Amino acid sequence: MHYNFKKIEEKWQKKWQASHAFRSQADPTRKKYYLLEMFPYPSGKIHMGHVRNYTIGDVASRFKMLQGYNVMHPMGFDAFGQPAENAAIKNKTKPDTWTHKCIKEMETELKRMGFSYDWEREVSTCDSDYYKWNQWIFLKMFERSLAYKKASAVNWCASCQTTLANEEVVDGGCWRCHTQVEQKDLEQWYLKITEYRERLLDDLSRLKEWPQRVLAMQNNWIGKSSGVDIYFHLKDSDKVIPVFTTRVDTIFGATYIVLAPEHPLVKELIKGKPQEKQALEFIDKVAKESKVVRASSDIKKEGVFTGSFAINPVNNEEVPIWIADYVLMEYGTGAIMAVPTHDQRDFLFAKEHGLPMRVVIQPKGSGLKAEDLTQAYEGDGIQVNSGEFDGLSNQEAKTKIAGWMEQKGIGKIQTHWRLRDWLISRQRYWGTPIPIIYCPKCGIVPVPYKDLPVELPKDAPFTGEGGSPLGKVKKFVEVKCPKCKGASRRETDTMATFFDSSWYFLRFCSPKFNDAPFDTQEAKYWMTVDQYIGGIEHAILHLLYSRFFTKFFQDLGMVAFPEPFQRLLTQGMVLKDGEVMSKSKGNIVDPDSMTKDYGADALRLFILFAAPPETELEWDNRGLEGAFKFLNRVWRIQDNLKDKADAQVITALHKTTKKVTQDYGEFKFNTAIASLMELTNAIYQSGADKEVFSRLVITLSPIAPHFCEELWEILGNKESIFKASWPGYDPKLLVEENVELAIQVNGKVRAKIEVPRDIPDDKLKELVLKDEKLAPWLEGKPLKKFIVVPQKLINIVI
Fold first, then answer.
1. Which residues contact 763 (CB under 8 A, 6 or more apart)?
2. Where are the alpha helices (DSSP H) in 32-74?
């Protein structure tokens, strides 16, 4: 007979809500644990990605509760953004109506999964008591010249009718709708994140418990490069083109230079040349391309000769000047020197366009010839064809050539960064209004703090055409200047939604605080976030911006710490039939239907058992059925409890407790579940008493909380299982039995060794090969095979 999961889950969800079971309050006498998953966009339905993310977090949260921590586990909604505005247009409603309807639906589904959220701390970024503080933060940045407006070419999504930050362009498309991104000249608001670039880079070393992949992505995006600005003079002109390189050791091999199509000198270089028409057409073509795609290493590079030449300052050679799509104005000086023999991208471009090549670094003991190369040689070696630097190692030559160039005034040692200031202007309605007023007399005027929040008007027209709806609301736009009281107009752009999510983790510390974005005393207790969980897709966007905001708050004296998240876990995607679940592919599995058929606890168990959290998870209905069957096996144990458990089961219990404790702490939930299944098998073979079963129920409870609460009550306990203490284990019961193994070398027994019965093969091999008794047969001889026959013998073949 199956346990009645529907009745049990409804019962405990009501009890948890009525008793405020997961309410969190600062308590200086207890050790805190702040666990947070990246809050969702309120689409109206949770998907399996949500279920996986939030189940991982919930298990960790409940585990820490049982260990005695004062746990804060909040939830809210990243509620502003383009999709709600589009949905409102499509469904002929208002974005706030649509969003709050979706929030209610998601709240219901999240509660149905049994997640241990403190709903009293819930925040929605679209509520004015939240976005008021977005505006407050913006004004603080404005006061410090960290928020500013400038005209520039920006990424433009024609479908969303709005600008995008560089970080929001993914594979050349809009991160939301995947429409190809274009370039457009506009006046926009920026945040000066570059002011913090050194700290953002240096403090990556503090993040010891972040995935290396995320650290590498942020390091690369910040992109600090040390090198030399080299001064190429235009032929027959006093004008200079500074060219930045990190490979000054290859300067004598530079056979052409390449400018970004947007470079301010380009129009002058091509004017009146036979190449002018072709170059202008190329510039127009590139202007429609995403900078991310242009910089990608796996796309063929295109370019056009300008008809002009420059002088290489180290050897006075004329070199042709090209423009090409792969050179960006934002990086370095917007111009590069090209050394085809020692840079693969330059090599491919030179081959395509028949440009000259010269070898200037020879690998030791080799004689490279430019005409024989099938790819660039990018390694170290000895300088050749490099004037007075011939014979030096190229690493030594880097320093000496750089110093020589500075001395001669033909170059300067410099540092360049890839990171650019953050574009936050969006030409949409459903976002935080930027608190700025434009006065014909006073210029740009910030909205006074006392007038915050600048609220979104409820009656903005929604057609999806013709720019921001805010610009069409007269009573919103027309306003008096706070300084001179003259007729003025409001800014009609709204903030990028990543602004909202760059500090929400601090708002959770005091969500109802009315005097500042957060109560500094509450933040002092709860922060930093001990465990943060979310997708790898936020490695650059959200995580970088959150680090920036935290450092800004540190500079304001509001927090004492430089980093917001102590430990980060990036969970893998949920796949079906080898592909990410999506409506367009028709491979969606609805969590709601799965909980109706099997219950939330079985779904949680399957999600955790199917794969380690960091890896992709392939959906399989049979796995969910298996999880349901396992819970029913555990349920039936209560019917056959003994007065006293066998020693064998008690030993298995203590081994399991140790393993599960370690695995939960390391987020190895799949192996923890495997251990609990093994213990269940042992109980079915030898039986269990009430104490053994109680401990099994406690260790399973973070994964299947409703199920275990019910069993805990059946076992006679009056309080919630999450008021219990996490069980310990007796080290004496963990002592492994030793076994004696015979060691054969080429079929003959040469020694015997005593080892623990469960020693891993790699440790066993290491132990055996260090055994002095085997030295006469193994020393100095290559090992061909190392074969282990478990608990019997080892056969070594040399």
1. none
2. 48-66
